[in-house]
Amino acid sequence: MAKQFDVVVIGAGPGGYVAAIRAAQLGLKTACIERWTKKDGKPALGGTCLNVGCIPSKALLDSSWKFYENSNKMAQHGISLGKVEIDVPTMIKRKDGIVENLTNGVAGLFKANGVTSIVGTGKVLGAHQVEVTDADGKAEVIECDNIIIATGSSPIDIPPAPKTGDIIVDSTGALKFQSVPKRLGVIGAGVIGLELGSVWARLGAEVVVLEAQESFLAMADQQVAKESLKVFQKQGLDIRLGARVTGSEIKGEEVTVTYLDQKGEEQKVTFDKLIVAVGRRPYTENALAADSGVNMDERGFIFVDDQCRTGVPGVYAIGDVVRGPMLAHKASEEGVMVADLIAGQTMQMNYDLIPSVIYTHPELAWVGKTEEEVKASGEAYKVGTFPFAASGRAMAADDTAGLVKVIADEATDRILGVHVLGPSAAELVQQAAIAMEFGSSAEDIALTVFAHPTVSEAFHEAALAVDGHAIHIANRKKRK
C-alpha cells in the first residue's frame, strides 16, 4: 500500500529541508526525499550548499585568510611568527568535519520535528503521486496531498574544458585539493570563481581568472564592482576580462587553455589545475513524469507564480529550479512561504530585498537596486558613499579597503539600494535589508545612533552623505 503524506518534499537542500521542517511544525505529515548519501548510506542532508557549496567554501575561505593574515600582516602589529606553513589535508579535514556536523544537525532537526527522511530519487507523477527509486533501482510510489520540488542545481559543464576529475574540476573538485597548485586557472569571474580563486591564491597559487564578459561582476553596482576589481588584482588575482575559452589540452599533469582575448587574438596559458565555474543549471532532469502537468522552460527552470505554485494545484517548486537568483537564503524563504501557504496561512516573500554576498576579503555585498538599474528606470535619485579608509574601526583592524554606497529616491528619500565592499559587508547589508523592509529613508538611518567605533558607522555616514551631511569625510558639492 502506498505511503500517505500531507506534504512530500523532493530535495533536502536549504530550500527542501527548511520547507519540510516548517511544514511539520505546522502540523502537516511530511516526508523529504534525498538521493545524496554519505559513505554509510545515510542521507547527506543539506544539499549543495551544506555539502559542497556555501559552508565548505566558507570554511576554506576562513582558513586561507588566517594563513594569509599570519603570513603577511602580523609584523606591523609587532607580532613575529617566523615562516608560516599550511597543511592542506588538515585544512580539508576541518572543512569535512564542519560539513559532517551540520548534515547530522539537519538529520537531528528532522527527527525532532517528525519529518520522515526517505533516501532515493524522487520523480513527480500525476494525481499527486511521487515515485521514489532507491540506489538499487527499486521504485515505490508515495501518495500525497502536496508536493514541493526542491531539487536544486548542478555546475554547468562547457565543451572547451570538460571535467577530468583531477586536473579539470568544477567547484566540488576545487574543495578537495590536497595540495596547493602552483598554477591555477579559473574559468568564470563570478561568485564561485572569485571565492575559490581567492582561497588558493592566499595559499600561494598563481591564479589566472578567465572571464568571457567584458565587464566585471555585471550583476553588481558597477562603481563598487570596479573598486573590487582593483582590490582583487592588488591581491594577486590575474583577472582577464573578455576572455572566451575555446579549448583545453591535457599533457601529463598540466592543462593548456586556449582563449580569445578582448582583441579577438588567440592566447594560451598553462595550469596545473583548472576550475570551471561558469554558473549552475537547474537540476530537473528526470524529475518530472511526462504526464505530471508541471511545465518547464527550455533551460530546465520550472514555471511558477509569485508564490511558487506550478500550473498543477498542490504542486510547488522552490529554490534553484525556479526564477530568481540561485541563493540558499532565497530557497529557504521560499520553502517557508510554501509551507505556510499549504497550511492555509497568508505569506508573500519580498523578492526585491534578497541580499547577495561574495565572501572574498574584503566581502562584496548588496541589496536592492544598483545605480545602473535606478538610472535605467528613469527615476530621480541621489547617492551617498563613505570609504572604509575613513573608518577608525577599520583602521584599527587594518581592513580599510572598500566603501559603502547608499542610493535613495530623490523625492521620497526612500532607500533603493545599498552596496558594500569592505569588512563585514554581509552584516552591514543585512542591516540595510532590515531597514529597507520597513521602508526606511536615508534620513532614518542618518538619525539612528550607531555605536562607536564600529565598521557599521560607515553605513551611517553613507546615509548622511546622501544629502551632503557626512561628518567624517568632505562632502561633495551638489550640482545646482
Automatic annotation (TrEMBL):
The keyword Transmembrane helix does not apply. This is Dihydrolipoyl dehydrogenase. Binds 1 FAD per subunit. SUPFAM superfamilies: FAD/NAD(P)-binding domain, FAD/NAD-linked reductases, dimerisation (C-terminal) domain. The active site is a redox-active disulfide bond. FAD binds at K58, G122, T151, G152, S153, D320, M326, L327, A328, H329. It is found in: Cytoplasm. NAD(+) binds at G188, A189, G190, V191, I192, G193, L194, E195, E211, G279. Belongs to the class-I pyridine nucleotide-disulfide oxidoreductase family. One of its GO terms (cellular component) is cytoplasm. Keywords: Cytoplasm, Disulfide bond, FAD, Flavoprotein, NAD, Nucleotide-binding, Oxidoreductase, Redox-active center. Its cofactor is FAD. Residues 5-335 form the FAD/NAD(P)-binding domain. PROSITE patterns: PYRIDINE_REDOX_1. Residues 354-463 form the Pyridine nucleotide-disulphide oxidoreductase dimerisation domain. It comes from the Bacteria. The gene is lpdA.
